[in-house]
TrEMBL record:
GO biological process, one term: fatty acid beta-oxidation
Localization per record: Mitochondrion matrix
Function: Key enzyme of fatty acid beta-oxidation. Able to isomerize both 3-cis (3Z) and 3-trans (3E) double bonds into the 2-trans (2E) form in a range of enoyl-CoA species, with a preference for (3Z)-enoyl-CoAs over (3E)-enoyl-CoAs. The catalytic efficiency of this enzyme is not affected by the fatty acyl chain length.
Alphabetized UniProt keyword annotations: Acetylation, Fatty acid metabolism, Isomerase, Lipid metabolism, Mitochondrion, Transit peptide
Family under the similarity heading: Belongs to the enoyl-CoA hydratase/isomerase family.
Catalytic activity: (3Z)-hexenoyl-CoA = (2E)-hexenoyl-CoA; (2E)-tetradecenoyl-CoA = (3Z)-tetradecenoyl-CoA; (3Z)-octenoyl-CoA = (2E)-octenoyl-CoA; (3Z)-dodecenoyl-CoA = (2E)-dodecenoyl-CoA
Known EC number: 5.3.3.8
Protein name as annotated: Enoyl-CoA delta isomerase 1, mitochondrial
GO molecular function: delta(3)-delta(2)-enoyl-CoA isomerase activity
Organism encoding this protein: Enhydra lutris kenyoni
Subunit description: Homotrimer.
Pfam families listed in its UniProt record: ECH_1 (PF00378)
């Protein structure tokens, strides 16, 4: 699955919906057993959630958007398919969450390709299920520091803290993902799938039980004047970079 939403693969409502439909199609076709998730945007895996969806819109839109973000995470996190990410670019916040929801992560060795949950740098907060997904991957202490400081880890550090499983030269990222896949596909499917569910269901259940409350929290939080202002300032900084 090659993500293509130029220029930065931001996860707009439309793009989230496309990803969800593609995933559902693959999951319902018995011929498919695995996905390699990668990007078609040079140097960028994903810039995360689309800030334009969270800025200057009305509460109904925020609720619709957040429901789609929840849906995509639940679907990826609990997918019965083997999902491996071949991370071939910088990967921020919501994009990093997608990669963390995969079963295995290969990252291209380029110092520009940092990844992490950098929400605090924008003046916003990673929701509890983003946090839980990171804790499940790197452990509590590393996650606490990474989340508070909004750290984006370059490849060597991402590997060292366990945010990714392998770092390879840029031209080998897809072949490395394919080689890894062979090991996962050699395991009897039902045993692997049930084990994945055993490991992940408690984390997913937390959101499933509180989905509506989580949407309401998001809408309340993102609608605040101070948060809207912080997001506008951040977007402005991104644009000013060019001048
Ligand atoms: C108490 C209860 C709490 C409940 C929860 C509440 C809160 C909210 C949780 C929300 C969780 C949020 C998750 C997220 O994912 S937020 C997004 C975080 N993403 C980032 O910080 C990345 C921002 N982007 C960049 O750093 C760079 O763009 C880059 C990815 C490194 C690529 O750099 P470069 O190649 O130089 O491209 P440009 O910066 O020039 O960008 C090209 C155009 O794309 C626009 N852009 C970039 N990122 C985004 C984005 N995420 N959304 C929308 N648009 C984006 C950028 O402005 C440029 O636009 P222009 O061409 O019109 O100038």
């Amino acid at each position: 699955m090659k993500m293509r939403n130029p220029p930065v693969n931001s996860l707009s409502l439309e793009f989230l919906t496309e990803l969800l439909i593609s995933l559902e199609k693959l999951e319902s076709d018995k011929a498919f057993h695995a996905i390699i998730l990668t990007s078609d945007c040079p140097g960028i895996f994903s810039a995360g959630l689309d800030l334009m969806e969270m800025c200057g819109r009305d509460p109904t839109h925020y609720a619709e958007y957040w429901k789609a973000v929840q849906e995509l995470w639940l679907r990826f996190y609990l997918s019965h398919l083997v999902v491996i990410s071949a991370i071939n670019g910088v990967n921020a916040a919501g994009g990093c969450l997608l990669a963390l929801s995969c079963d295995y992560r290969v990252l291209a060795d380029n110092p520009k390709y940092a990844m992490g949950l950098n929400e605090t740098l924008l003046g916003i907060i990673a929701p509890f299920w983003f946090k839980d997904t990171l804790v499940n991957t790197v452990g509590h202490r590393t996650a606490e520091r990474a989340l508070q400081l909004g750290l984006l880890f370059p490849p060597a550090e991402a590997l060292q803290v366990g945010m990714v499983d392998k770092v390879v030269p840029e031209d080998q990222v897809l072949s490395a993902a394919r080689s890894e896949l062979a090991q996962w596909l050699a395991i009897p499917g039902h045993a692997r799938q049930l084990t994945k569910s055993l490991m992940r269901k408690p984390t997913a259940d937390r959101l499933l039980k509180e989905r509506d409350a989580d949407i309401q929290n998001f809408v309340r939080f993102i609608s605040r004047d101070a948060i809207q202002k912080a997001l506008r300032v951040y977007l402005e900084k991104l644009k000013q970079k060019k001048t």
